[in-house]
Specification:
The complex is a heterodimer of chains A (about 300) and B (about 500). By secondary structure, chain A is α+β, with helices and mostly antiparallel strands. Chain A folds into 2 domains: about 130 residues, no CATH class; about 160 residues, no CATH class. Chain A contains 9 helices and 14 strands. In chain A, helix 4 packs across helix 5. The N and C termini of chain A lie far apart (about 45 Å). Chain B has about 500 residues and is of the alpha+beta class. Chain B has 4 domains: about 40 residues, no CATH class; about 180 residues, no CATH class; about 100 residues, no CATH class; about 130 residues, no CATH class. Chain B has 9 helices and 32 strands. In chain B, the strands form 6 sheets. An 11-stranded antiparallel sheet of chain B has the order 16-15-14-13-10-11-12-9-24-28-27. The chains are: A alpha+beta (about 300), B alpha+beta (about 500). The interface between A and B is medium-sized, with 34 and 35 residues.
């Protein structure tokens, strides 16, 4: 039995919650009341067809992305493919790696084209699309482990910076990961870009074949998952400091590449309590940051 | 692609194949041993103006958003579906903070597994259900017993640890199922040894031996005489109100004497208690006034010819007005049934009107044991003290409870005030019931609460699957006051 999309305010009366199937969005717009209301109405109107649009092309979106593949029809699906294509040659990636960010962008776009807002965000389970007019900024809290939210650091995103998308990936999150990162948070120009990049970097934080990492074929857990028989991480045992450093180094190497290619603006990689920051100001230096340090580094990003 | 054990979820167009024991992409639907179930960790009561729509719609297909916003203090998280952490000594599954009129409140929600629990059934009927202390059976198994009757009602006590775990496996399972069905407000057929078969359902009239009960008696036969004597005066010479307990006779009753109603020479069967009041005019039963009589004249002897007179008008009526008959004496002073005169119709109707609808009511009763209380505080007895001191309010699925005086936290709750499907069971067998403790944050800290596990209300509302319900408008709002631990309206 098909449930209808649910759209309602959270108890604070400010944020709107949009839910349909596996999609959960928390959105908030800032501006004069009439404009905020108009934005919410536009978001709700756009939202109700999103899941059906995506599901109509689900088989295609679950296949490995390759340059020259037949393009999808939908605007969100197209955004997903565009976001993952830069990685398709070197890595296995499907457009589904960018679905959350791409949906967030779409809803944010519907809001900003319908109303004049000073700021707005669409948070799709941690993958966030942002809108900022000149002079505005957002304070964004970061968590070290998605399953155990505790603020690890705070990032201030200013309108002068190009960052309009945030995404987090890791094996402890809702989606499967090929790597062992607790969480990789990425700042990028767009949410779909951030989403795809976080997936790629989190996959790269890894110790291939390590005996204390439990891996299970994705299809054993979810038969129709886009990762098929690939091994996804289900548990990480105790690792030595050297092993943690090696895994993080592998991730940082990939993040550095993405940074220099302009695909991301900044990334924070978390594994077993250790954190590495990759950002423009840090360059290719590998910084092990305490919460205070990482905050400083990211503010400089 | 489909795995044999996996099932396809059709709750949304993603159509996930879900393996046993796993959830779909939404984390809301799961495969529970081949069955698709919705996981609803929380039932969230929302305080809206009317029952009906369960969520506050923003933009509906049918209508526009009405501007209503549900704000924090108007949302109460119940324990239904919260799960439980005990028998481990761990904090309860959810400890939620919210601000109410500027005061930080904490609600600790958990589901209790109750082996020591049962239901008290109040069955509004004067019909005889069976001898006190006799066994009550469901599906042939003993699930409880007949306990002391109350005014106008028969009382059954069902469940309890002896039937749940003390008898045969089947006795325990049937008892658990019976309790669960009663608490879920489903109809249950019960048979009393040497007594009646009764179908009970919370909030519905009982059905005794196939006959639905309609009304509770307004009073015993004697009381009915007292209440209606004035209305009969002058319209009839004699009235007998037939009752299994005390049958009243107008001309002999104090109320009749006060009105100067003359003697009629009526001779009653049964044992005279005081003037105009008779015990045991017949055996208990399911006919007139809770007796076994079908013919009211069978409780009369012949009229005394020295006193009675031909054409004497006699009304016989049961305590609920359901049964009545009108007689006039013939020349031989034998009662002959006649049509009820219009002047008396009203009084019979009034007896009926004054009898409230007969219902079956189900109170769940259970005790929160030490382990459950340990989920709230590291020092379980302090929670008991806090409830005693009226600092902590106990609710059951958001419904008010009556907490018994004395030790422990033993409470009763009217199941009709609770949300649907509030109860569950474990194979022990034992019942699973929601229980919430609400108190001020400062008091929670003082009693040794798990302060580091307190979560803001918003985190529950946005983070996890939940069922939103309108609050029952008949219940006091659980967050409004922590004053009274007793049943308050």
């Amino acid at each position: 039995m098909r449930e209808r999309a649910q759209i309602k305010f959270l108890p604070d009366g400010c944020r709107l919650h949009l839910h349909d199937g596996p999609i959960d969005l928390i959105i908030e717009a800032f501006g004069v009341a009439g404009e905020v209301n108009a934005a919410y109405r536009a978001a709700a109107k756009r939202f109700v067809t999103v899941l059906d649009e995506l599901c109509g092309e689900l088989p295609l979106l679950r296949q490995r992305a390759r340059a020259g593949c037949p393009p999808p029809v939908g605007v969100i699906a197209t955004r997903m493919v565009v976001a993952v294509l830069p990685y398709s040659e070197r890595s296995f990636i499907t457009p589904m790696a960018a679905v959350a960010g791409a949906v967030a962008e779409e809803i944010l776009g519907s809001m900003t084209s319908a109303a004049t807002l000073s700021r707005a965000y669409v948070n799709n389970g941690g993958d966030i699309a942002l809108h900022l007019v000149p002079g505005e900024s957002f304070a964004v809290g970061m968590v070290e482990r998605p399953d155990r939210p505790s603020l690890f650091g705070k990032v201030e995103l200013r309108s002068t910076e190009p960052v309009r998308g945030i995404a987090t990936s890791g094996w402890r999150g809702r989606s499967f990961s090929l790597g062992i990162a607790d969480a990789v948070t990425v700042l990028a120009d767009r949410a779909a870009m951030a989403d795809a990049a976080a997936t790629i970097i989190a996959n790269a934080v890894d110790l291939p074949g390590h005996p204390r990492v439990t891996r299970v074929p994705a299809c054993d857990l979810a038969p129709d998952n886009d990762l098929g028989g690939r091994l996804v991480t289900r548990g990480v045992g105790e690792l030595s400091q050297d092993e943690i450093a090696a895994a993080l180094n592998a991730g940082v190497a990939v993040a550095d590449l993405l940074l220099s290619a302009g695909l991301i603006r900044s990334a924070a990689l978390h594994l077993c309590g250790e954190t590495r920051i990759v950002s423009i100001s840090a360059g290719s230096e590998q910084v092990t940051a305490s919460p205070e340090q990482s905050r400083r580094s990211l503010v400089h990003a | 692609m489909a795995d044999d054990e996996a099932i396809r979820c059709d709750a949304c167009p993603v159509l996930c194949y879900i393996k046993p024991g796993r959830t779909g992409a939404c984390d809301r639907y799961a495969n529970d041993s081949g069955k698709l179930i919705r996981i609803d960790p929380h039932v969230v009561l929302e305080r809206v103006l009317s029952r009906g729509d369960s969520v506050v719609p923003f933009l509906d297909r049918d209508r526009e958003w009405d501007g209503n916003i549900v704000s924090g203090p108007n949302t109460f998280v119940t324990a239904i579906g919260a799960g439980t952490t005990y028998p481990d000594y761990k904090p309860a599954p959810f400890i939620i903070s919210s601000a109410v009129e500027g005061v930080d409140m904490v609600t600790v929600v958990t589901e209790g597994i109750f082996s020591y629990c049962g239901v008290k059934l109040k069955i509004d009927t004067d019909r005889y259900l069976g001898p006190e202390t006799n066994l009550v059976r469901a599906q042939g198994e003993a699930v409880g017993h007949v306990t002391t009757s109350e005014y106008g009602s028969q009382m059954l006590s069902l469940g309890g640890v002896r039937h749940l775990t003390g008898g045969s496996r089947r006795e325990g399972t049937v008892t658990c199922e019976t309790l669960l069905n009663l608490c879920d407000r489903k109809p249950v057929e019960l048979t009393i040894d040497e007594g009646a078969t009764v179908v009970v359902q919370a909030g519905k009239p009982p059905v005794v031996d196939g006959i639905p009960e309609e009304r509770m008696r307004v009073g015993c036969g004697s009381a009915t005489i007292g209440m209606f004597a004035k209305q009969w005066h002058g319209k009839v010479d004699e009235v007998v109100v037939v009752d299994d307990h005390i049958t009243g006779v107008l001309s002999e009753h104090q109320a009749g004497k006060l009105l100067g109603i003359p003697e009629t020479g009526i001779e009653m069967k049964g044992r005279r208690s005081t003037p105009g009041r008779y015990f045991r005019v017949a055996e208990p039963g399911t006919a007139w006034g809770g007796t076994n009589i079908e013919d009211p004249l069978s409780i009369l002897r012949e009229f005394d010819p020295k006193i009675a007179w031909p054409k004497l008008r006699l009304l016989m009526v049961s305590t609920t007005g359901e049964h009545y008959a009108y007689f006039e004496l013939d020349e031989a002073l034998r009662p002959v049934e006649k049509e009820l005169p219009a002047a008396l119709t009203e009084s019979v109707a009034r007896i009926k009107e004054n009898c409230e609808p007969a219902l079956s009511t189900v109170l769940f009763m259970g005790g929160a044991g030490g382990s459950l209380r340990a989920g709230v505080t590291e020092n379980p007895v302090r929670l008991t003290h806090s409830v005693r001191d009226a600092l902590t309010r106990v609710t059951c699925g958001g419904a008010p409870v009556y907490v018994w005086p004395g030790g422990g936290i033993t409470f009763m709750v009217d199941v009709t005030r609770m949300p649907d499907h509030a109860f569950g069971y474990v194979p022990t067998p034992a019942l699973v019931a929601p229980i919430e403790f609400t108190l001020k944050l400062e008091n929670y800290a003082a009693l040794g609460g798990y302060m580091d596990h307190v979560r803001p209300l918003n985190s529950i509302l946005q983070g996890e699957a939940r069922r939103h319900l309108s609050a029952n408008p008949g219940n006091p709002w659980p967050l409004n006051s922590t004053k009274s631990p007793g049943p308050d309206q």
